[in-house]
Amino acid sequence: MKKQTKIFIDCHVFDQALQGTTTYIKGMYLELIKDKTKTFYFASHKYNLEEFFGTHENVNYINYKSKNKFYRLLIELPQIIKNNNIDYAHFQYVVPPIKNCKFIVTIHDVLFLDYPQYFPFFYKLKNKILFRFSAKYSDVVLTVSQFSKNRINKHFQIEDVLITPNAVDELFFEHYDKLDAKEKAKEKFNIENYFLFISRWEPRKNHHSLLKVFVEANYYQNYNLVFVGDDAIENKEYEQYYETLPEEIKAKIFKFQKVNPNDLLMILRGATLSVYPSIAEGFGIPPLEAIAAEIPSICSNTTAMSDFDFMKDNLFNPLDIMDINDKIKKALNDKDLTYKKQKLQEKYNWENSAKVFKDIIFDKN
In what order do the strands lie in the sheet with 194-198? Predict the structure, then answer.
């Protein structure tokens, strides 16, 4: 009888604020665990991963004893892998130094090397060493876009980087009552008729440019501006501009953090327009989730986001205030939402991404 393959998945990122990495793990493995010929081991410190992945005979959950990343990498991970006779261990960005099985690492981006001005010095120094080591030390190196593949190749001289694209959860494609979504958003968060930007706070996310357009093009007269995302790196340019605004404009600007997934979906569905002005991304899921929900969506045309060709005229130069404003005006009258949704579903879905993963890991190794 053939030995059943065992895959370990490091899910420590679920203990932090939900982000693109957690979306990637969730979407990929909800598909992969359907393969009953494989056994999966998911591990986190405190997060109830069973809420995401459910109860299955071929799925096991492990709790890390410590939330300390050094203890996890140096002590716990090698022990868990050895004690459970793991065949493959899948990590995001960084792998442990002790290797007791084949390593898979997904490096979503190396933006700190291409856009160093947006990242702290020690973050750049530390991650350049760790990411390079992880890429060289792993048996399989994955990333999520052609852009990131090219940059990893350039910076780390690794040619056989393979792409497992991000995708959009089927939940975002579900039919819903738009009026009901608007009413719920107003009732719970006191927001209505709003532009929405979903992203954690970092200077490269370019919150300040969207704020400037919102104010200087007088959108505040008819709309609100809603930011959803946790703090990561301080954006001084945004804060300085915001402090110059009169109170009547500040009252039209909302900032929410620690929003749970259900409320986030509700806020998205209630939005008038989704704007994603980020300067640099390894992929960029939020504008696609907005399209899936048939919310008019505009997005930067830089880095990995330039691949979103089905968005056509809804892409803009994030450094050009006039271009952002022009795309906002066009998107508010967008009649092509169903077409974009269809093209999105064809190009980015987790079933396709999981198939790529299985072909790479199980059929060729």
Answer: 253-256, 224-228, 194-198, 273-276, 297-300, 315-316
